[in-house]
Structure formats: C-alpha cells, structure tokens
Specification:
heterotrimer; A alpha/beta; B alpha/beta; C alpha+beta; A: alpha/beta; seven-stranded mixed β-sheet; six-stranded mixed β-sheet; 32 strands; about 20% strand; globular; B: alpha/beta; five-stranded mixed β-sheet; four-stranded parallel β-sheet; 17 helices; about 15% strand
Chain lengths: ~775, ~425, ~160
C-alpha cells in the first residue's frame, strides 16, 4: 500500500492504481469526460488534469499512477486553471444548441460548463460543423456536438466485442462514425448513448419526446431474459418514455442489452388490450370486469363439473411474475387439476421425475467473468443472453477458454477454443464424446479437445442454452452435462431463457405427479385452457399443434396485455398488466430474487394479473385467496430459503436414448431475440435494428442442393401441416441436413416443432 | 572532423552498396561485438561514455535509454528505429538511409544484440519511398551476406530487421504514435507511463532510437566511446548532422563536430542567399522557438548552447531566414502545419491548433485585432504541457518564440493591416 | 478484388510481423491496393480489412489518418507540392504558381482529362532539395524551377 495525499487529506492506495481510482473511492470528484470506470484509459479529454507536487505540468488523474508520498491537488489554482482551459477548448467548437439538444439537463458537458466555463467565448472564428451519420434505428447522431472522448469507440472494442464505430480523419477533422454509415449490429449498442457525455449519440426512439427533468425515474427489473437486468424506468403522464440501466455490479453492471433498453416501446403499442372482452356468437364484445370474471368462473366450473378437472389446463409465459405464476397454479390445483406449466418451448420432460430442485445457472452471474473454462451447449448465446455473453467474453479476454457444442456457428465476438458444430440431433452424441474422453474412453477429436480444455483451469462450468433446453432430447443433454461436470470438477447449469425460468419452478407452476406438462396439454387437447400471457403460435415448441389444441377447446381464457391471435380461438380475454403496471418478482437465472413495483398505473381497464387470479379464486370459492397485497402472495410463493431449492442434479436418471429422426431435413428453430416475448415483439425500433434479423431459411450449400433449391430463391418450408414461404439463404457454417428457420416469428408461426423435421421445396 | 562518423563515404559512387561499406571497414564493429562476445553491459558502458544523445530531437542520453530495457524479460523485445522524419527543416535521416544504409543496419544489429531484441523495425517516412526501397535492398544484401537474419555470422544468433513504410502523418515521429502505427492503427500517441521500455511494440519491451543515433553506434563500438565524445564537447559527444535549409546558397546536410559555431555552419552552407542580411534562424526544426540573427550568430551548435538561448537544438534542423521574411506569414504556415497534423486525440491540441492558426491567418490577412496578441499567448500557453505528446508543445512554441522576438511585426500587421517587410 | 500480384506483395508485408499481428501490414496493404486501384474506394478498404482480419472501420481509420491515401479518385499523376516553411522560403509559391499556369488547376484539383491532380503536401523530409514535389507518392522531384517542372511534366504521358 502507498500513502498519498489528495487535497491535503491522507489516503492509502494500492500499487498500480491511478489518482482517479483513489479519488473516486474517496468521493473526491475530479471532472472528466473520456474516463469511464468500465473502459480502458484514453486520457484524451484532459479534463481531469490535476496538480501534482514536483510535477512540472498538470497530470491527467485518470492515467497517472500514484506513487509513495505523492501530493495531489485537484482544486488548486494551477489545477483549476488547467481544467478551465480544457473546458474552453471543448466549448469553442461545441454548438450552443442546448435548448434543442436531447441531452440538455443530463449532459456532462453542460453540467461541468456551469462550474468551469465562462459566460462568453473568446473564440471568434467559424465553428466546426460535422454532418450527422446514420448508424441505425436506435441511435440518433448529432455529430457537431461530439467532443471526441471515444467512449463509444472503446465500448465497441472492449465491451460489445465488435469495433463498429471508429474515429476517422485526424485533428480537428476527426469524426466518429461507423464504416460508411452502416447500421450498428451489436445487441449492446444502446449503451453508447449512456456513455456519450454529450448529445452526439442519443436515443432515437426517445428523441424529442420529453425533457430529462420532466421524467419521473423509478426502479424496475427487466422481464426480457433470464438475467433480470436492473432498470430505471422513466415515465411522464403515466406512460413509459425511456428505460435506462440501474447499476448493479452483480447483475448487469452499468449495461443494458438493446432489448432491455428499447423494448419499452411495446408497452405503448396500439395492440394493448384495454378492456375485458367476451366472444358471443363469434363477435367480440367489450364488457366490464365482473361480467368477464363471472363468465370465466362459470366456464371453469362447468368444465370441471361436466368434463372433469383433468380437462382443465393452464399455460403461462415464463415472463410472468412469481406472484402470477404462483396464483395460477394455486387456482388450477384448487380446482383439482394438476395441469399447469410455464415451460412452453420445452419438448422433453423426461427429467422431471428425477429433478431435485429448480434448474438454474449453477454459478453466480458475477462469477462468469472469472471462469477459466466454459463449455456452452446448444445456444444462440448473444441473442438470448447478451450480457451473459459479454461476461463470458471478458472471461476469455482474461485468458479463459470457451468451447462450444452447437448447431449454429454464430460469431461470439471472442475466440472459441474448440467447437463441434453439429446438427441438433447430434448434440447428444457430441456431448457424449466429451464425457467419454473425460472418462478415459475412446472419443473423437473435438470431444478430446473440449475434455482437455475442461480438465485444466480452476473455475469451470458447462452451460446448456436455449436450443439445448428446447431440444427433444434435452433430458439426455442434462444428464450428460451432470456427468461431465462431475468428471471435470466443473459446475453445470442452464442459461435461463426468460425472466422467471427459475421463478416458475419456485412458484410451483410445473406439473407434479399426475399433472400434465405443457407439451402433454397441447398434444392431448384439453376442454378448457387458462392462458397467462401466452401467444400460443409464438411461444410454444410446436405452434401448429398448440393452435389445433386451443381451437378444439370449449373454453379458452386468455389473460393478456395484448390483443393477438387469441382473438381467433379464445372465448374471453382479460387485460392484464405488463411488468411496468404491476408489482411482482422475477427470480433470475442465478436464483436472485428481484421484486419491483409498478412504475405507471394500469392502462385503461387493465388489472394486475395477480389480482385477477385472486378474484377468480374467490369466485371459484377456493380457500386461501384472500390476499391484501402482492407482498403476501410473494411471501407465500417464496416461503423458506429460495436458494436451497435450486438444484441442477438429477437423481438416477437412466433414460434410454430417444429415437433419432429418420434422415429428413432438421429444423434449427431458434427464437430471434426481438421476438422472444410479447413486449419486445411489439417494439418497432428494435424490429428495424440489424440484430432483429429476418425470417429466412438458412442452409449450407450442400443442403440447398439436396433440397433442390437455390440460394436467394423463394422456398416453401412445411411442418406439421403448416407451411411458410421464405427466402432461402446460404450459410455454409450450418451442419449438413439442417435448415435454420427462426421460431417465434410471425412468418413462421404456422409451422411445427422448433427442432423437428422440416421439408423444403420450391415455391 | 567533418563527415567523420556517418557521412564518411557520401561522395563515393554507390556508397550504399554493401561491398563499398565493407571496403571502408563496415560491419567491423558488429564482428568485434560477436567475436569478442562483448557483453551488453560493456556496450552500454561505451555508449554512455560517448555522451551520445538522441538525435531525433529530444536529446535523451542513449546509453541511459538502453539501460532501461528489462534484462531478463522472458518474452520478446523489440528495437525500433525512427526514420519518420517529418519535422519541417529536417532531412538528415533520408540521406543516411540513401547513402549509408548499412551503417544504420549495423547499428541496429548491435542495438538488437545489446538489448536482447527479437527483431528490429525501421519506420521510414512515407514521402521518401526511394529511401524505403533502398533500405529494403540493403537489408536483402545484409541477409544474403549472413550479417542479418538467421545465424548471424555463424554465431547461432538470430535477429532480423524489417522496414515499415509510413504514409503521411507527422505525429508518427512521436515514438509511441510510431509504435501504434507499426501495429496497424492510427498514429495516436500513447499516454506514458507505461513507457515503451516496459510496454512498447505489441505490448513488449521496446527501445526506440533515431536513425542518426543508431548509425553512430558502430563508430562508438569500433573506436570506443571516448573517441566519439572527443569529437564533440562534454555532455554533447560526437559529430552531428545539421540540415540547413531556407535562405542559404547551398542548402544540405553537414556532419560536423558538436559545438561548432553557427557562423561556421552558415559559411559551410554558402552563407545567406544572395548576400542578404540574416534575419532569424529556427535552429532545431519548426517546433522550436525562433532565434533572432544577432543572438544566433554568437551560438555554438550543441544542445546546451542553443538551450541557453531559449530554444532547442532539436534534430539539428536549421531553417535560415533572411530579411525579406514576414514573420507573421512564416508563423501562419507553421501554425497551419500543426493544425493539419494534430492527431485529434487531446482536446487542447485538437481544438487549440486550429484556433491558433485561424487567429494568425486573420492577422496575416489584415483582420487582426489588438486583443489577438494576448489571445495567441494565452491559447498557446493553454496547449503547452497539457497534451499526451509533444505535438501540442510543438504547436505552441513557434507562437511563443515569434511573439517574444518579433512582436512588433505582429502589432504592425494588426495596426496597419499589412506587412512591414 | 485485388490482383494476385498485389496479394503477393501484401503477403510479403504480413510476413514482416509476428504471427497474429497481420494488422501491422494494413498501411502497406492499403498502399498496395491504392497503387493497383488508383484510389481507396470503401469496398477496397473493406476488402483489405477482411484480408487482414480486422474491422473495416479500423482500416478506414487508418486510411483517413495518413494523408497519402486517396479516398477520392485522383488523376493519373498526382503531384503533391510541399508548401511548408522551408520549401516556401526556397520558392514553393512560385512552383505552385507555375504548375497552376501550366496545368490550369489549383491545389486540390484534377484536370478535366483526369491526367493531373495537384495537392498541397506537408514536410517530405527532404527540405535541402526544396522546393519539392512528390509524384504518385513515390518519386520526389527536387528544386522545382520552371525548367525542372517542364522536364517533369514532359515525362508524364
């Protein structure tokens, strides 16, 4: 430890830390623009110049390492003179357009100019004008305002993992831009908006809609993926205007994925369901809540009494809150049915009987950055878990090795040590090769390489991604991962797909002995369905089958925030609150319980779903539905130690290998990031972003030839009686015999199983 | 003692050929080092004794710089030669490469041996393509002769040198900008610390020396540091190549003893052109403060003498100006240069160089205002010492020097909207 | 995109640097590409970036930072005249004037027939031979008197 002095006060500092580090820890503010705690030190803005005793010139606090006995003066006359001079330079070419700048009121330059600027400029020459750049639908540019701090550039290089922005030209003519004004493709791009200290990069969807000081900020939690990024939601006039990250070093740090940041537009969608509706004689009629709830209760009673309680099934989105999931299962079980599930895209439930707890990540999210060895199985990682992917990239940057067994070879923006890119049907075999190599049995080259990687290193983990969890032989992958983890001394776990992929288990929204899984309820159609936030054609493993089941039912009750396809098959629609309009809880993929409150009032006649379910329980005359508030529901749902209920291990699972497909083309049906839940799929700006992708049929050149179709031609893909016309595209990184066709997408919503056989023919 | 160390064969035909260099004892120093298995410490000792100071402009003692390289570093280390000569008035390294490339190569090989480097890179200024090609040819000759590359002179020691061609950026003459440029990036200087000796090319320990510095090494090794020192004066050892340009009869390079009176150098260059009156001299390249004739004529050409007159010897680049020169016009052109060449990284330089240029431009074009004098001094002062590299200082110093010595010319421009010359 | 000869030259440059550091060759690769294509179109820059495995924007940064790269088409003969102080003291203004009169174009312009481009240059590091011009980034022309300029232009066909 070194002893230094800042502004006359003594501090101890670690060798290698900078003046800025010590000052930050001590709460001494040194003005800065280019410095950012998460980025490399650029030392280019010079705003943090401070006086250091015996140094002939002022030193940048962000880059100057402390030394024993160093005396630093951050507010001395010399320091202030240097800081003011830098401020003057920054302002000479900065436009005085604060009144029309979206950054006004939350601008680092504006804030510091108050303290370090002067009333009038000595600069009487012509100011620089820089043409704005188009960089996509999410980020607006006003490049004349840029102060060249390069935070956005460093963010791309160091955090997003892809250098899409750069500073071209030199000197006063330097400009920040993308390569020939291409759209930014990174799924983390919006963070550049937060990083930009001025109004050069601002949110395009938010642009000109409100002033920072008009907005009310409230804390919340992202519902869009398994991480549960911490949010600050900004509202005005009972409407969500903007979503920003809320720092939480253990979850999202100071970052947000673009999905977390821009999906809020879907909350204000014209498709919002605002009144209860009942379908009478094929016509939808708005009605009041009591009428709708009576309709539902009497319908459920009739189904129970006339068809039997086992004819009632409940399906819930994994993006629902713990409170909602808990009350849904309590209601269904109260009626006497065990048919409840939230695992809508899962197709293999053989492991259920051997489960010992709720499957989870298996390690803390914050520990991902420090892993030495990682094996990912079956995942579109960047799309599904943008910020977990970022943490794994940091692990690789630290010297960790990441290996992959996957049907797709998407760029992870970091080196992949070893990989086996195989058809979904070969994932089990490929993973078994790793097990064999670790067990000392003969195995193939990829298996040996991955095994060797996993044998080395201290901190290691195996993760099953969404594709693995959706795959019809998921249980075998699960069992193999467990064996490999034991052999390699690694942790193993699951990359949680949705906000409550863990919470749904803890809430009990899964069938117990005798109950039906989501797949069974749709494979063996029930007479009555309760749907909680479910869009069957987009949220289930096999949309064709799901739609058929729902269409054949006597009663379909759709609790939904949106009017959607359920208008075709439902009998009653109940408007329920999205996460911004209700209190609730998400248990994230690492088992972190994160509760939140509503940030705005429910829209129109919308009600929080937990209240709707409570009233339904009352109307059904069930015991234990007399809650006064959501906290009581939460306390009951998560009674006891939630962490103790997390367990990935299977006991004595000896499932026989499921049969493989008979050699037809196999679909790789991943869910595109911006289609993954009801809110994001209604967010217009994201749908235009480069990362949204289009629904096309990707195949390798050989597979195109086998299917008798040509790249860039229209083709018809068919599954389960449904078919879609798509563009065929060539991707030679795909395994032979595979057709990559996105699921969860309107263009493919009539197709069958996400990872089942598919046929491709000429249009 | 003229042309003693480097330009000894400059007037010989094809002096750049290996055979001709060998004929005058070329590569003797390298052979001596390898045959006698001289220790790096012993070589550094001789370099220290020679009082050789960096010829690129900063004048840092070379022996001391070499001693900064970590000795027992387990990974690769590099030696880099800075031939990115773009300071207006400087043109000596081009002639070293054109006329005596092998002495530079020999110096680099000895440097690589001394520093334990894996490879050497010579970064050659973009505009001197012919010199780059000649250097590449010389490298091929040296490799073919077993002097460079694998198993040098049968000793089993490997060391190779490569030429890296610049492409038009003055700032790359700054050593860390030059490293960035070799790495294939924009030439934006790095903040120091860490210094190149610990974190240099590709993050490895690296020593960067000027062309003339490295080309002086064979002489020092062959004849001993003392002999080199004796060529010049204490703390200012050796000969130095002075590049004389501007208003002289015979502009060119002159290798003379350190400490030679300026008046002698001027005479060697044929005196002021057309017999006109000397007005001022920029003694060390465009970045250093101008020195009026009456002061300059009393100075000797060495680091210490020029520094006492408030300027710098720099790279020994002497720009001579006669009494027809308008100092406002001269400063306008220099200020434009720094404005044009600022890398754009640090705020004071990026924004301030343009400001300086525009104000001087206004004064030159009859748009000056009385307050401009103070403004120029203030802006220059606010750039000075506030940037990552010395380009900010280089932009400020000519302004400060001109205002100090020729303030009346600026005032005349402002008052009368025209030139007094 | 680039000829086999150009790629061979680029490969030779790549070999100068340690393995994994092929980005070091970007300056040479862009120079070689420019020699072949006459100027650096965005697709040329992108090709070079792809060949070296670096982001296109990083290659674009390099192409716009160093001023001998041409991001717009130039004439068959690009004549860059140094106008910095030493060259100006030694007659650069007269040389520019003479070129202007002979070619009918000013600095930064190209003749309508696409034969000549005149550019203002910064210090070329050969001030003793001033005033200087650099032709097509390769050949330095020294002591630009009207006679010298006439001789240079006569060679350009």
């Amino acid at each position: 430890m070194l002893n230094i002095e800042i502004d006359g006060k003594p501090f101890t500092a670690e060798q290698g830390s900078t003046i800025m580090d010590v000052a930050e820890a001590a709460g001494i503010y040194i003005p800065r623009f280019c410095y950012h705690k998460k980025l490399s030190v650029a030392a280019n803005c010079r705003m943090c110049l401070v006086q250091v005793e015996k140094a002939p010139k002022p030193m940048p606090a962000c880059a100057t390492p402390v030394a024993e006995g160093m005396k630093v003066m951050t507010r001395s006359e010399a320091a202030i003179k240097a800081q003011k001079a830098v401020m003057e330079f920054l302002l000479i070419n900065h436009p005085l357009d604060c009144p029309i700048c979206d950054q006004g009121g939350e601008c680092e330059l504006q804030d510091l100019a108050v303290g370090y600027g002067t009333g009038a400029s000595r600069y009487a020459e012509e100011k620089r004008v820089v043409l704005n750049k188009y960089i996509g639908p999410l980020i607006n540019t006003d490049m004349t305002r840029c102060i060249h701090c390069t935070r956005c550039v460093r963010f791309g290089q160091e955090i997003a993992g892809i250098m899409e922005m750069g500073q071209i030209g030199r000197g006063e003519h330097s400009e920040i831009t993308t390569f020939v004004e291409r759209s930014i493709g990174s799924e983390l791009s919006g963070n550049a908006i937060d990083l930009c200290p001025v109004g050069a990069l601002t949110s395009k969807p938010f642009r000109y809609s409100a002033r920072a000081w008009e907005l009310t900020s409230r804390p919340s939690v992202s519902p869009h993926d398994g991480l549960g990024a911490n949010l600050t939601i900004q509202t005005k006039n009972n409407r969500v205007f903007r979503v920003l990250p809320r720092d939480n070093e253990e979850v999202n740090e100071c970052w947000l994925s673009d999905k977390d940041r821009f999906a809020y537009e879907g909350l204000n969608s014209a498709e919002r369901l605002q009144h209860p509706m009942i379908k009478r004689n094929g016509e939808w009629q708005e009605c009041d809540w009591s009428e709708a709830l009576e309709f539902v209760a009497s319908g459920l009673k009739r189904a129970r009494d006339e068809q039997g309680e086992e004819q009632i099934g409940a399906l819930a989105t994994p993006h629902a809150t713990v409170e909602e999931l808990y009350l849904l299962q309590k209601l269904v079980r109260g009626i006497g049915s065990g048919n409840v599930d939230f695992r809508l895209r899962q197709s293999d439930f053989r492991a259920d009987a051997s489960r010992q707890g709720a499957p989870w990540l298996g390690v803390a999210v914050a520990d991902l950055n420090r892993l030495d060895r990682v094996l990912i199985v079956g995942s579109t990682l960047r799309a599904d878990h943008p910020l977990l992917a970022h943490r794994l990239r940091q692990a690789v940057k630290r010297g960790g090795e990441l290996s992959l067994i996957n049907p797709v070879d998407d760029d992870l923006l970091c080196p992949v040590a070893h990989k086996a890119i195989v058809a979904p049907g070969a994932m089990v075999a490929a993973l078994d090769q790793v097990r064999r190599a670790l067990a000392g049995e003969s195995s193939d080259e990829a298996g040996q390489a991955i095994a060797a990687s996993l044998k080395a290193g201290e901190r290691k983990a195996i993760f099953l991604g969404n594709l693995a969890q959706h795959y019809p032989r998921y249980a075998e992958l699960h069992a193999l991962a467990q064996q490999i983890a034991e052999l390699a001394g690694a942790k193993f776990g699951f990359l949680g797909e949705a906000a409550n992929s863990v919470g749904g288990y803890l809430a009990g929204a899964v069938p117990a002995e005798g109950g039906m899984t989501a797949a069974q309820m749709l494979d063996q159609p029930r007479k009555a369905y309760l749907l909680l936030g479910v869009e069957a054609e987009l949220d289930t493993y096999n949309p064709a089958q799901a739609l058929a089941a729902l269409r054949s039912a006597d009663l379909v009750v759709a609790l939904s925030a949106y009017k959607h396809k359920a208008l075709d098959y439902a009998h009653v629609m109940l408007p329920i609150a999205p996460f911004t309009e209700t209190s609730g809880t998400f248990v994230n993929t690492e088992g972190r319980v994160q509760s939140f409150n509503a940030v705005v009032k429910p829209l129109g006649e919308t009600r929080p779903a937990w209240k709707v379910l409570r009233v339904l329980g009352n109307l059904m005359e069930l015991a234990g539905f007399d809650y006064d508030n959501a906290e009581q529901v939460r306390a009951e749902a998560l009674a006891g130690d939630a962490a103790a209920r997390l367990d990935n291990r299977l006991k004595a699972f000896g499932a026989k290998a499921a049969g493989e497909s008979a050699g037809g083309l196999q679909r790789i049906g991943e869910v595109p990031s911006y289609q993954a839940d009801a809110i994001v799929r209604r967010a217009p700006a994201l749908q235009h972003a480069a990362a949204a992708g289009a629904a096309v049929a990707w195949m390798s050149g050989a597979t195109l030839a086998r299917a008798g179709v040509e790249a860039d031609a229209d083709v018809v893909v068919s599954q389960g009686g449904g078919s879609a016309m798509l563009k065929a595209k060539c991707d030679d990184t795909l395994p032979a015999g595979c057709v990559r066709v996105a699921a969860g997408h309107p263009a493919t919503a009539m197709l069958g199983g996400m990872l089942d056989e598919i046929t491709v023919g000429r249009a | 003692m003229a042309n003693e160390v480097i330009f000894h064969s400059i007037h010989q035909p094809e002096s750049w050929k290996l055979a001709n260099y060998l004929a005058v004892g070329g590569y003797d120093a390298l052979k001596k080092v390898l045959a006698e298995k001289m220790t790096p410490e012993a070589i550094i000792e001789q370099v220290k004794l020679s009082a050789l100071r960096g010829r690129g402009g900063a004048g840092f003692p070379t022996g001391l710089k070499w001693s900064f390289m970590p000795k027992n570093y387990p990974g690769d280390k590099y030696l880099v030669c800075n031939s990115d000569e773009g300071e207006p008035g400087t043109f000596k390294d081009r002639d070293i490469i054109r006329f005596n490339p092998h002495q530079l190569i020999e110096g680099m090989i000895i440097g690589g041996y001394t520093l334990g480097a894996k490879a050497g890179y010579n970064y050659i200024h973009g505009e001197i393509w012919e010199a780059y090609e000649r250097f590449e040819e010389a490298l091929d000759e040296a490799r073919a002769a077993g002097l460079l590359g694998k198993n040098i002179l049968g000793t089993g020691w490997d060391f190779d040198i490569h030429a890296h061609h610049g492409f038009g950026a003055y700032v790359c003459g700054e050593e860390t900008a030059l490293l960035e440029s070799i790495e294939g990036k924009k030439g934006q200087p790095r903040f120091k610390p860490p210094f190149p000796a610990s974190f240099g090319l590709y993050g490895k320990p690296t020593t960067i020396n000027n062309t003339e510095t490295l080309a002086s090494i064979p002489y020092i090794v062959k004849h001993g540091g003392q002999k080199f020192l004796d060529l010049g004066k204490p703390n200012n050892g050796g000969t130095k190549i002075f590049s004389v340009s501007g208003h002289v009869e015979n502009p060119g390079n002159f290798e003379i003893a350190m400490g030679t009176p300026f008046s002698e150098l001027l005479a060697m260059a044929g005196g002021v052109k057309g017999g006109r009156k000397l007005k001022a001299v920029i003694p060390g390249g465009s970045s250093v403060p101008v020195v009026p004739a009456e002061i300059m004529m009393d100075l000797t050409m060495d680091y210490d003498s020029i520094a006492k007159a408030g300027s710098y010897l720099g790279a020994g680049s002497v720009i001579v100006m006669d009494d027809t020169v308008c100092m406002v016009r001269a400063l306008e052109r220099l200020s434009y240069f720094y404005f044009e060449e600022s890398c754009g990284q640090c705020t004071p330089c990026r924004e301030g160089t343009g400001w300086l240029y525009r104000v001087v431009h206004r004064i030159e074009h009859g748009q000056g205002r009385p307050e401009d004098m103070d403004l120029l001094e203030s802006v220059a002062g606010n750039i000075m010492g506030r940037t990552i590299c010395a380009l900010g200082d280089a932009a400020a110093m000519p302004v400060q020097g001109m205002l100090k010595h020729f303030r009346h010319e600026f005032e005349h421009h402002i008052q009368h909207k025209k030139c007094m010359v | 995109m680039l000829s086999p000869e150009s790629l061979k030259k680029i490969d030779r440059e790549i070999a100068k640097y340690p393995s994994g550091q092929q980005q070091s060759a970007v300056m040479s690769a862009l120079r070689i590409a420019q020699d072949e294509k006459g100027w650096l179109a965005p697709e040329t820059i992108e090709f070079v970036a792809g060949y070296l495995g670096m982001p296109a924007i990083a290659a674009h940064e390099v192409a716009t930072f160093y001023n001998m790269y041409d991001l717009q088409p130039v004439g068959k003969y690009k004549i860059t005249v140094c106008t910095n102080l030493p060259c100006t003291l030694m007659g650069a203004e007269s040389a520019v004037d003479y070129l202007h009169r002979k070619l009918g174009i000013g600095l930064g312009e190209t003749t309508p027939d696409g034969k000549f481009t005149l550019k203002e240059g910064e210090c070329m590091g050969a001030c003793g031979d001033g005033p200087l011009a650099l032709v097509n980034n390769k050949k330095i022309c020294a002591k630009l008197t009207p006679e010298a300029i006439d001789a240079i232009l006569a060679e350009m066909e």
